[in-house]
Amino acid sequence: MASFSFPRHKIFNMRWYLFSFCLFFLACQEPTAQTTDQVVEAPTYEMIIDLQRTLLANPEEPIDTELAGRIVELSEEFVNAHPDDPVAAELLFKAGDIARGMRAFGKAIQLWGEVWRKYPESTQGPFSLFFQGFTFDNDLQDKEMAKKYYNQFLTTYPEHELAAQVKELIATLDKTPEELLEDILQRNK
Question: Which residue blocks in 103-162 are alpha helix, DSSP H?
Answer without folding.
Answer: 105-118, 124-134, 143-156
